[in-house]
Amino acid sequence: MTLQEFNQLPLPARVQQLHDCCHCHWWAETLAQDAPFNSLQSLLEQAVNLFNQANESQILEAFKGHAKIGDIELLRSKFAGKATAEQGQVMQASEDTIKALWQLNQDYEAKNGFIFIVCATGKSAEEMLVILESRIANSRDCELKNGAQEQNKITQIRLTQLIEN
Asked: Which residues form the Oxo-4-hydroxy-4-carboxy-5-ureidoimidazoline decarboxylase domain (predicted)?
């Protein structure tokens, strides 16, 4: 859809489109109310600015909209379309890499209380495993911030895909 079409959507439809890009109700509702946007760039900037104001529960709500990196069964079912496109290279990884990603993600989630979030677009499963290994020892607070930054990257990609120039 074009930016003009997005701007002209009824508020509930704008909220739904935004929620599909970032699974935080507060963020989607607040950003939807900021329309109309005069450019894709202004939408992207406001999206980041707004998510940077999110509290912990809002950030965690956004995280719940993601499949776990390495969860092949989940990728094949609930998140099949978007997650497979975003994590497509995971499906091509070796069984050992997938198992390592899955196990380390389990360890990460047990430690932090939320799944490992990384903008997987353009990254191989091996690259994501290296990133996960480098972040596993971080504090929960550090990882909440890291995850929020990665969520912003993911959201920027999704918003750009939503709005055709």
From this structure: 7-159
Would you say domain 67-147 falls under CATH 3.30.830.10?
no
pLDDT at 164: 85
Residue 19: how many other CB atoms lie within 10 Å = 18
CATH 1.10.3330.10 maps onto the chain at 67-147
Q: What is the pLDDT of residues 66-106, one digit of tens each?
A: 887 766 665 444 444 444 455 555 666 788 888 898 899 99
User: DSSP of the chain, one letter per residue?
Assistant: -BHHHHHHS-HHHHHHHHHHHS--HHHHHHHHHTPPPSSHHHHHHHHHHHHTT--HHHHHHHHTTSPPTT-HHHHHTTTHHHHHHHSHHHHTS-HHHHHHHHHHHHHHHHHHSS------TT--HHHHHHHHHHHTTS-HHHHHHHHHHHHHHHHHHHHHHHSB-
pTM score, two decimals?
Answer: 0.87
**In the prediction, which pLDDT does 11 show?**
98
